[in-house]
Amino acid sequence: MSQLFMFEKPLGMRDTLPELFEMKDKVRTSIEDGMKQWGYQFIETPALEYFETVGSASAIPDMQLFKLLDQQGHTLVLRPDMTAPIARVAASKLLDDDMPLRLAYAANVYRAQQREGGRPAEFEQIGVECIGDETISADGEVIALLISVLEDTGLSDFQLSVGHISFVRELFLQILGTDERAESLMKFLYEKNYVGYREHVKALSLSSIDKQRLLDFLKLRGGREVIEKALSLIENGTGAEAVAQLSQLWNIIADFGMADNIKFDLTLVSHMSYYTGIVFEVYAGQVGFPIGNGGRYDRLLRKFGKSSGATGFAIRLDNLLEALGPIESNEPIHCILFSGERRKEAYELAKTKRQSGLKVVLQDINGVKNVDAYTNKYNETSFLLGNAGKESPHE
């Protein structure tokens, strides 16, 4: 084991400096306000959970979990996502009346990285969970809410891709026959390795018609016209029902006036294995990773002893900030620079300005080596120096 450098951080961990912190806070507040307007209530869960409950239910690979032992020898994990912890809370305390729940959160999650690769091991998610509603209206609501809060942040260049896990599974099972063969092919979709997908299909022992069905599947991307194309590939059953749900979803999003923001991508497969129905991802600008994702997970709560439909989404705050670019602060900070003999006057002036809503920094001039460099950090500076004179603005 090599010796650590003085300022070295654990792999994948990052510091958040003041400017970025302010940007995150501004964007987070905007999103939280939007979620509250739609009737979602915020909830907090512990950073540490039991591995046997939330850890195993989270669908995050075991190798990405941060694990430790408590004093009783139980294995704990730092929460790798927020959906599983909220499912635990909902199943244990909130679902007694069988009423739909609308819950929201903003919290850090932790996923260990084997190598840096630019990916953080700790990052903030902000999202919602609609629990207890099995209708497509609930899926449409969370998608419309996602679009709404993203627009509220000032983001304009983004696209939401919508797919359906059940459609993919049913199509692959119809053609390939076994779960194992279907999972092998779905792995290429999760990795977005479409070249590997095509080569794998060509090597399969299938009829030319079935091979062509699997290759045509990759073309199921676009607007409402994708619905008819999907029906031409699938036989009756679960797959056809999934297509009908997507058609209904399109109508719901259109009623929200947001159809221009979504596209169908039936090749979309999530790495979260608990998704059971409609799934979606959001991409923006030149950001290479999704800034948000979500979907329906009707079987997750069974792991906590409840049977209930649920859907939701999570926004990756760091990826969203990258998509937004620099955000100018509209809240100036006023600086009062004072000498010892006018300290009390400076304190009173600062109190008055803060009561009026301003942000104010108080600074004893004896603690500043370079006055010009220091005051240039602030939008406005007042000097209270010497025994006489009044407040004088810095020019």
UniProtKB/TrEMBL annotation:
CDD domains, alphabetized: HisRS-like_core
Organism domain of life: Bacteria
Entry keyword annotation includes Glycosyltransferase: yes
Pfam families, sorted: HisZ-like, tRNA-synt_His
Predominant place of localization: cytoplasm
GO BP, sorted A to Z: histidyl-tRNA aminoacylation; L-histidine biosynthetic process
InterPro entries per record: aa-tRNA-synth_II (IPR006195), aa-tRNA-synth_II/BPL/LPL (IPR045864), HisRS-like_core (IPR041715), HisRS/HisZ (IPR004516), HisZ (IPR004517), HisZ-C (IPR053846)
Pathway given in the UniProt record: Amino-acid biosynthesis; L-histidine biosynthesis; L-histidine from 5-phospho-alpha-D-ribose 1-diphosphate: step 1/9
Alphabetic keyword roster: Amino-acid biosynthesis, Cytoplasm, Glycosyltransferase, Histidine biosynthesis, Transferase
Record GO terms (molecular function): catalytic activity, acting on a protein; glycosyltransferase activity; histidine-tRNA ligase activity
Domain Aminoacyl-transfer RNA synthetases class-II family profile: 12-332
Subcellular location: Cytoplasm
Amino acids binding L-histidine: 81-83, 111, 125, 129, 274-275
One cellular component (GO) term of this entry: cytoplasm
Miscellaneous comment text of the record: This function is generally fulfilled by the C-terminal part of HisG, which is missing in some bacteria such as this one.
Entry function: Required for the first step of histidine biosynthesis. May allow the feedback regulation of ATP phosphoribosyltransferase activity by histidine.
Family from the record: Belongs to the class-II aminoacyl-tRNA synthetase family. HisZ subfamily.
Known partners and oligomeric status: Heteromultimer composed of HisG and HisZ subunits.
Protein name: ATP phosphoribosyltransferase regulatory subunit
Lineage, top ranks: Bacteria, Bacillati, Bacillota, Bacilli, Bacillales
Encoding gene, per UniProt annotation: hisZ
